[in-house]
Specification:
The protein is α+β, with helices and mostly antiparallel strands and 142 residues long. The chain is built from 3 helices and 6 strands, in the order E-E-H-E-H-E-E-H-E. The termini are close together.
């Protein structure tokens, strides 16, 4: 379900492949594909956990990325590499998120902005939880 200011619109499940419906279009083909996959398997109006992944060159950079995000409500974790010379992994997550194309687009913009100001940082995308309760699976009538 999406809200355009004055009214709500139900988003029907879509097939995994094919064209992205306008209401699911984020402007990024990878994000569109992931959003279509989630919509094909679960209701988009169900709150879920969303997690983003960033690779950074060192611990100082990891702290530069994680601290401000944690202060704005993200759950940030830093994972040190097992091998010397490998990047650190920073994961940032939020629970209770309702996925919309606008949210996905603005999240990508946030993380791409971080990449642009923290040298050597790479945004590696996102994932979202999918419900396992069959009562929450999408149906043609929902």
């Amino acid at each position: 379900m999406t809200h355009d200011g004055d009214s709500w619109h139900l988003i029907q499940p879509v097939s995994i492949g094919g064209e992205t419906p306008l209401q699911l279009s984020t402007g990024d083909p990878d994000d569109d594909q992931l959003l279509r996959q989630i919509a094909a398997r679960d209701r988009l109006d169900r709150p879920r956990e969303v997690k983003h992944f960033l690779y950074v060159p060192d611990e100082d950079s990891a702290q530069m990325v994680a601290r401000p995000l944690a202060m704005t409500g993200w759950q940030a974790e830093i994972f040190a590499p097992e091998d010397t010379g490998e990047p650190y992994l920073v994961t940032v997550a939020r629970d209770g998120v309702v996925l919309t194309a606008d949210l996905v687009r603005s999240s990508r913009e946030l993380f791409e902005q971080i990449v642009s100001v923290v040298p050597g940082t790479e945004y590696d995308g996102w994932e979202a939880s999918i419900g396992t309760d069959t009562d929450e699976s999408p149906t043609p009538d929902s």
